[in-house]
Write a structure and sequence with these properties.
The structure holds two protein chains of two kinds. In chain A, 36% of the residues lie in helices and 29% in strands. Chain A is of the alpha/beta class. In chain A, the strands form three sheets. Chain A has a six-stranded mixed sheet with strand order 6-7-8-3-9-10, sandwiched between helices. In chain A, strand 9 and strand 10 form a beta hairpin. In chain A, helix 3 crosses helix 4, helix 3 packs parallel to helix 5 and helix 4 packs antiparallel against helix 5. Chain A is elongated, with a radius of gyration of 23 Å. Chain B is of the alpha/beta class. In chain B, strand 1, helix 3 and strand 2 form a beta-alpha-beta unit. In chain B, helix 10 packs antiparallel against helix 11. The longest helix of chain B is centred in the middle third of the chain and has 32 residues. The chains are: A alpha/beta, B alpha/beta. Chains A and B meet through helix 2, strand 6 and helix 3 of A and helix 1 and helix 8 of B.
Chain lengths: 318, 377
């Protein structure tokens, strides 16, 4: 065991598919009992990273250790200690709830003595007591998801990898699911979870924002919001947001503009000096300002700000 | 290798089969249908060939010849016509395969001791049947003239001369020359190809397609346990189908079974491993249900059907094809099957076919095991 406090360590982890670099030199440490979020758009390299950590893909370069074991050198040691939920629903749809649970209990070699207790636990956790003989494929999405989680943790793994666990699940079921995840984290389980839902990332203790295979920011959700945006964020509600979006970019002190619902988010160097300038500009356009105030950035603002500046930098060098 | 995990895998696989009506139909109904289809439908014997007769004379003698024809089980006189045109029309319409014309001076010429010609018109659309039919006709007429000769000599107080060389034919192994006895044993190879290669390639490709394989290989279950667990139920079902087909062949179609049951099981188990390995190997490479199942059919079922000697004798194939049959595992299995059923050849004398089969079993088994890794890519 290399490090007791860190359950998952990524050291220059890289995965190339031909000339395409899916994961590019990622360095991370995830603490024991942490709910760690891996946030990024589709195709950013989230699933590829998680698959390398589960020993399903061989890294092209760099190392990763899970529970102290190198994922490339001892994948079987790693597999004994992890629970994995892949992106696709991956239980057997033609088996019953109980048959799926028994199957995975068998595959994870749950000791016979503990089996009844673990099976009962999985049923309670997925709220499927009394529904043991239902065919899994016929269950609603949220139930399937909970059952898949239940099956992935039958052997009480210290580390749980969840790849987009809540995609296609209704908001209520999603909330229940996250409650379950935190319950397990409270018991000391390390949870490594990928998502592309910004609002979902708020549930995580710590986050890595990933874009095109690279980590662009790392920290707790509130740290990211405080640090990631240089300058202040203003919310603007006006009569013609479309027109304001373009013309406000030319106002001195305004760095970026973006549409958020029916309002605009404006990134400015300093809220105090930018506000009068914006009001003036709007007056000249006779675009009525209904609301203009400084707000705390959302994770989406952080993400947009970080990826936009990176992409701009890349284009400049290219 | 963990036995418990292997059995857990096998149990799951069995549940898939039981829950899937299509798989069930293939496992239970297909062997029966194939045996019945080939047992009844494919009959390459020529029996009761329909013949139209134009007897221009209508004498005692000409009727004697027709009786000979009728008495042979190969022919059935469908109609007697009195005009040449009616006879050709019957051939045109396909009412008869052959027409026999007995000339108006048949008996007269016979009495004169001169040669008599009987005309035979044969429908040669199917050249093979036409050849056989002509042969049958000749032998019937020859035996009739031999009888006439003997009678004439006897009537004149001369003993029939000894024919110096006579071929005494005795058919062995398939005494009644029944084609069903030749064909039905080979059906076992077809059934096993479908169950072993087609079904297993489907079930493994399905796991890749649906993403369940990814979940499976993230657990501590080993590659060997996955492979063995998935193939075990198909092995057992394949062997059960072998027994089912053999029983149908022996008790329903009365195909002789002269060998030992144990020899049959040993050879069948070897062939089963061959087709299972091929099915597994194909599905690892193809990873899509459609592609895998098509490749499995083309590489196992088709050769078992066409190039194994099941229906078409290998010795009659063009030389290049004969060479190709040597890399078809089904060829050895079908040969062994025919020998066990019809000849009763003991295990020790089957080495010429069992050794190549064993090599295929080993090579393909190793290839399949090596091809499967617990990794995505």
């Amino acid at each position: 065991m290399t490090n007791e406090t860190y359950s998952v360590v990524l050291d220059g982890l890289t995965k190339r598919f031909g000339s395409f670099v899916a994961v590019d030199n990622v360095n991370l440490q995830v603490r024991r009992g942490e709910v760690f979020g891996f946030l990024g758009p589709n195709g950013a390299g989230k699933s590829t990273t998680i698959r390398m950590l589960c020993g399903l893909l061989r890294p092209s370069a760099g190392h990763a250790t899970v529970a102290g074991y190198d994922v490339a050198r001892s994948p079987e040691q790693v597999r004994q200690r992890l629970g994995y939920m892949s992106q696709k629903f991956s239980l057997y749809a033609d088996l019953t709830v109980m048959e799926n649970i028994r199957l995975f209990a068998g595959l994870y070699s749950v000791p016979e003595k503990q089996k009844p207790e673990r099976i009962a636990w999985a049923l309670t956790m997925s709220n499927l007591n009394g529904r043991e003989s239902l065919i899994t494929g016929a269950l609603p999405g949220g139930w399937k998801q909970r059952l898949a989680l239940g099956c992935a943790v039958l052997h009480k793994p210290p580390i749980l990898f969840l790849d987009e666990p809540t995609s296609g699940v209704d908001p209520i079921a999603r909330r229940q699911f996250w409650a379950l995840i935190h319950q397990m984290a409270d018991e000391g389980v390390t949870v490594f979870v990928t998502t592309h839902y910004m609002e979902e990332a708020e549930y995580c203790n710590r986050l890595a924002l990933i874009d095109r295979g690279t980590v662009v920011a790392l920290g707790s959700p509130s740290e990211l919001k405080d640090r990631a945006i240089e300058g202040d964020l203003l919310l603007l509600e006006c009569s013609r947001p479309g027109e304001a979006l373009e013309s406000l970019r030319r106002v001195p002190g305004v760095r970026d503009t973006a549409v958020f619902g029916s309002a605009l988010h404006l990134v400015v160097e300093d809220a105090a000096t930018a506000e009068p300038a914006i009001r003036n500009a709007m007056l000249r356009l006779s675009n009525e300002v209904r609301r203009l105030e400084r707000i705390r950035p959302s994770l989406e603002d952080v993400f947009v700000a970080l990826t936009a500046s990176r992409r701009a930098a890349r284009e400049r060098t290219a | 290798m963990n036995l418990r995990r292997t059995l857990v895998m096998a149990r799951k696989e069995l549940l898939h089969i039981v829950r899937d009506p299509q798989s069930l139909a293939i496992v239970i109904a297909m062997p029966v249908i194939l045996v019945l289809l080939f047992g009844y439908g494919v009959n390459i014997d020529l029996k009761g060939l329909l013949v139209v007769v134009l007897d221009q004379e209508g004498s005692q003698q000409s009727e004697d010849l027709l009786k000979h024809l009728q008495a042979s089980s190969y022919f059935h006189v469908a109609a007697t016509v009195n005009q040449y045109g009616a006879l050709t029309r019957a051939l045109d319409r396909g009412d008869a395969k052959a027409g026999v014309v007995i000339p108006w001076d048949f008996s007269q010429r016979l009495h004169a001791g001169g040669p008599v010609q009987v005309q035979a018109l044969v429908d040669a659309t199917d050249d093979n049947s036409a050849n056989i039919l002509t042969g049958y006709l000749q032998s019937v007429i020859q035996s009739y003239s031999a009888q006439l000769q003997g009678d004439w000599l006897q009537n004149h107080g001369v003993a029939a001369p000894e024919v110096p060389v006579v071929v005494q034919t005795r058919t062995w192994y398939n005494e009644d020359l029944e084609s069903s006895a030749f064909i039905i044993p080979g059906i076992l190879a077809l059934v096993m190809s479908v169950i072993g290669a087609f079904l297993t390639s489907l079930t493994i490709a399905r796991e890749w397609e649906r993403g369940t394989m990814e979940q499976l290989i993230s657990t501590p279950v080993s590659a060997g346990e996955i492979m063995l667990g998935k193939l075990l139920p198909y092995f057992v079902l394949g062997m059960m189908d072998t027994i089912l087909c053999a029983l149908l062949a022996i008790y329903w179609f009365k195909v002789p079974f002269r060998g030992s049951f144990l020899t049959l099981m040993i050879a069948s188990a070897m062939f089963m491993v061959v087709v299972l390995s091929m099915g597994f190997f194909i599905s690892v490479l193809a990873k899509g249900q459609f592609a895998a199942s098509q490749i499995a059919l083309i590489t196992t079922f088709l050769p078992a059907f066409l190039l194994s000697g099941f229906l078409f004798a290998i010795e009659q194939m063009p030389i290049p094809l004969q060479v190709v049959t040597h890399i078809i595992p089904a060829r050895y299995y079908v040969t062994v099957l025919k020998k066990i059923f019809l000849k009763g050849t003991p295990l020790a004398l089957l080495y010429a076919d069992l050794i190549p089969l064993a090599i295929f079993t080993l090579v393909l088994g190793v290839l399949a095991t090596r091809s499967f890794h617990k990794r995505l890519s």
